[in-house]
Amino acid sequence: MNDCVRPLSARGKSVKDDWRAWLPEAKAVVFNKQVHELESSYVMLSVSLDEAIELRQLGQPGKSLQAVGITSSLCRLLTHALGGLLRALSEHAKHYGTIPNAAPFDPANFQGQKGQRSARMSNLLNHVLLSQRLQFLHKVGTLVEMVEDLGKDFRHAAEDLAEGLTVNPKEMWDEVDTDHYDLNTCLREAIVVLKSFLIALPQSQLGTFQDTVREQSEPQETVASRQGLIHHRRTTTIAGE
Asked: DSSP letter at 77?
């Protein structure tokens, strides 16, 4: 789409201004819905992990390992929903040229070395990206990578603990605790990014964005199944010609 026909955005002066800004009712509904779904997934993970850690501290290793095993699937639910939203933000911004504000990461908000390193590298690259749009896309892309990596590390550590496969349980407990902390940071960053995105998003594109979120949030097996069905239909049609 050419720049001359893109609807003008209503981007604020800064991310802080965006965060304080009022959203029109339709955008507020979308924002609140997305935040509620993400927060619900996070709370389920957080409560379950806290229970597992508490059981361990109370000297009940069997129950604590059983409890931490449950967190693996809860982590997957959170990272899938969070990753889907972030991918939708990126896809829409690329396709429609949406230009939201984006603030640099603060490495101090991450507990793990991997998260801190990703934040620092992102900020360094941010200095050479002159376009506000590229800065936004880069930040969202970095968040997607962080969420995927943290989710994998958390699940592997939780599953190894639950199955008794680790020779250093303390290290794995520290891993799930740190990954949980940094996933929470990614969630907070994503919520702020979403608000700035909705501020800049033309009202006429709100429905399209919601469709993209749903598409990007579909389970991978559903997408694969649909693609297989399409392929089967095409094959059948060709064979019947």
From this structure: H
- The whole-angstrom distance between residue 137's C-alpha and the CA centroid of its chain comes to 14
Whole-structure pTM value: 0.86
Return d(Cα 189, Cα 139) in angstroms, integer. Answer: 10
| Amino acid identity for residue 89 in this structure | L
Please report, for the chain, the start and end positions of each structural domain, with discontinuous segments joined by +: 16-240
Q: What's the CA dihedral at 125, 129, 135, 141 to 10 degrees?
A: -50
Mind listing the pLDDT tens digit for each residue in 177-199? Answer: 999 999 999 999 999 999 999 99
Q: How far apart are CA 133 and CA 42, in angstroms?
A: 29
- 157 neighbors 175 (Cβ within 8 angstroms): yes
What pLDDT digit, counting tens, does each position of 81-106 carry?
A: 999 999 999 999 999 999 999 999 99
Residue of 173, 170, 183 whose CA lies nearest to 111? 183
